[in-house]
C-alpha cells in the first residue's frame, strides 16, 4: 500500500475548507470524526490538470477530455490577464501561504502581481456549482493571505470554471485592502471559536462536506427541502391550492428542472471523461442526418412523389437561418429584419404551443 503524502496543511484549516467552516463552524469537529479516504479519480484528475496549468507536465499527458478543460482554462486566463492589463506581471503558481500566526493556510492556483495590484485566479476543473466568487470564503481567505504576504491592496479575485453547470466559464470580483482586512478578522474570529460551535446546514457548506452522511442537521434539512434545489414536497390537491401557492410551486418546478438539467449535464461530462464513472449508464455517440443539397433533394422527391409532397417536406429552419446569418456578420436583430424584408411574403405564421413565462414584477 502506498504511503499517503504528508499533509501540507499540517492538520489546520485551509482556505479550501473555509466555505464550509465559515458557514458551519460546528462542521470542523464532526468532520474530524469522519474517517475515510475520499481521495478519488476526480481529485487525481484535478491535480493532473493543475500540474499542466503550472507547467509541470505537458498538455499531451492528459486524456482528450481533460485536455479540453485545461486548454479552455488557459484561453480564459489569457483573456483575463489581457482584460486586467496584467501582461508582464509577476506570476506565482500553486503556492501555499500561511496566515500570520500560522493558524491556517491556503494554496493559491495563480496570482498575477503588479506592485500592490493582483489578479488572483482559482481554477475549478470539476462539474459542481461553486460558491459565487463574491461570496466565496475560499477566495476571501486567499485574498487575506495574498494581501498579508505580498502587500496587495487591490485584488481582482476570479474563478475559471470551464465545466460550470451554469455555462459561465469565468466570474470575478474586486476587493480593496479594507474589505480584505475585514475578511481576515471574520476568519480569525470564527476559527477562534470552533469549540462547541453550532452546525448550520446549507447548500454551499454541505455540498462538499465529508460529514454529510452522519450529520443530523444535513439529514433534517434534506428531508425538509421543498423544491429549492432539492425535491418537490407533497402538495394538496390543485383545487385546494390558492393561486399564490400554485405560483410558488411553479417557481419550485422551474428551479428543480434547471437543477436536474445541470446535474444531467455534469453526469454526461463525467461519462465523457471516464466511461466507468456512472454505474449502469453510457454515452452512445449521437448522429444527425441532414440533407445538404436541398434543390437536388427537392427534384428527386418531386419525381418520386409529387410537387405538393416535395414542397411540404422541404423546410427552411428559421432559427438556423437566423443563426447562419449572424455568423455572416449580421446581428440577431439585423438577421430578423432581413428575413422579414426579404422572405416576408413567403412566411406564414401558425400558432404553436404557448410559452410559459413569468410576469414581470410590478414596481410602484
Ligand atoms: S453536512 Fe452541512 S450542516 Fe452538517 S456538518 Fe457538514 S456543513 Fe455542517
Which fold name fills CATH's third level, the topology of the largest domain? Lambda Exonuclease, Chain A
How many domain modules? 3
**Span of the ends, CA to CA:** 68 Å
CATH architecture of the largest domain: Alpha-Beta Complex
Instruction: Give a list of the ligands.
Output: iron/sulfur cluster
Structural class: alpha+beta
Low-confidence stretches: none
Would you list the SSEs in sequence order as H and E?
HHHHEEEHEEHHHHHHHH
Q: Main β-sheet, in a few words?
A: 5 strands, mixed
Shape: globular
Mean pLDDT: 86
Give the count of helical stretches.
Answer: 13
Q: Quick one: how many beta strands? A: 5
Helix percent band: 40-55%
Description of the molecule:
With 364 residues, the protein is an alpha+beta fold. The protein has three domains: 15-207, Lambda Exonuclease, Chain A; 227-234 and 245-279; 294-343, no CATH class. The chain contains 13 helices and five strands. It has helices at 18-21, 27-33, 41-53, 64-83, 137-150, 177-192, 203-207, 216-224, 243-273, 294-304, 307-313, 318-326, 332-343, and strands at residues 90-98, 105-114, 117-123, 154-160, 170-176. A five-stranded mixed sheet has the order 1-2-3-4-5. Strand 3 (117-123), helix 5 and strand 4 form a beta-alpha-beta unit. 22% of the residues are buried. The protein binds iron/sulfur cluster. Iron/sulfur cluster (SF4) is lined by residues 20, 24, 27, 30, 199, 201, 205-206, 209, 211-212, 215, 217-218.
Amino acid at each position: 500500500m502506498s504511503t499517503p503524502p504528508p499533509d501540507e496543511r499540517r492538520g489546520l484549516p485551509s482556505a479550501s475548507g473555509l466555505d464550509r467552516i465559515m458557514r458551519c463552524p460546528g462542521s470542523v469537529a464532526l468532520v474530524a470524526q469522519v474517517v475515510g479516504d475520499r481521495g478519488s479519480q476526480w481529485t487525481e484528475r484535478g491535480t493532473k490538470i493543475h500540474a499542466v496549468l503550472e507547467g509541470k507536465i505537458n498538455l499531451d499527458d492528459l486524456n482528450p477530455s481533460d485536455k479540453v478543460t485545461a486548454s479552455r482554462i488557459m484561453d480564459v486566463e489569457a483573456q483575463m490577464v489581457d482584460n486586467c492589463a496584467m501582461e508582464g506581471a509577476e506570476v506565482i503558481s500553486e503556492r501555499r501561504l500561511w496566515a500570520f500566526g500560522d493558524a491556517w493556510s491556503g494554496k493559491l492556483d495563480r496570482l498575477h502581481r503588479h506592485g500592490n495590484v493582483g489578479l488572483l485566479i482559482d481554477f475549478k476543473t470539476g462539474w459542481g456549482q461553486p460558491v459565487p466568487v463574491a461570496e466565496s470564503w475560499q477566495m476571501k481567505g486567499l485574498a487575506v493571505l495574498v494581501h498579508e504576504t505580498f502587500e496587495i491592496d487591490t485584488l481582482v479575485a476570479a474563478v475559471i470554471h470551464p465545466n460550470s453547470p451554469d455555462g459561465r466559464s469565468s466570474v470575478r470580483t474586486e476587493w480593496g485592502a479594507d474589505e480584505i482586512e475585514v475578511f481576515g478578522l471574520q476568519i480569525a474570529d470564527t476559527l477562534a471559536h470552533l469549540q462547541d460551535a453550532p452546525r448550520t446546514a446549507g447548500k454551499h457548506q454541505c455540498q462538499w462536506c465529508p460529514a454529510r452522511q452522519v450529520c443530523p442537521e444535513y439529514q433534517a434539512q434534506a428531508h425538509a427541502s421543498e423544491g429549492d434545489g432539492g425535491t418537490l414536497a407533497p402538495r394538496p390537491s390543485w383545487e385546494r391550492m390558492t393561486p399564490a401557492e400554485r405560483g410558488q410551486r411553479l417557481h419550485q418546478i422551474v428551479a428543480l428542472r434547471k437543477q436536474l438539467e445541470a446535474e444531467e449535464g455534469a453526469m454526461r461530462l463525467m461519462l465523457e471523461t471516464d466511461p466507468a464513472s456512472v454505474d449502469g449508464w453510457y454515452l452512445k455517440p449521437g448522429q444527425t442526418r441532414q440533407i445538404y443539397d436541398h434543390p437536388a433533394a427537392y427534384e428527386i422527391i418531386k419525381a418520386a412523389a409529387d410537387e405538393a409532397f416535395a414542397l411540404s417536406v422541404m423546410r427552411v429552419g428559421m432559427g438556423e437561418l437566423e443563426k447562419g446569418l449572424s455568423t455572416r456578420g449580421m446581428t440577431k436583430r439585423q438577421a430578423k429584419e432581413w428575413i422579414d424584408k426579404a422572405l416576408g411574403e413567403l412566411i406564414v405564421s401558425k400558432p404553436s404551443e404557448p410559452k410559459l413565462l413569468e410576469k414581470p414584477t410590478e414596481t410602484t
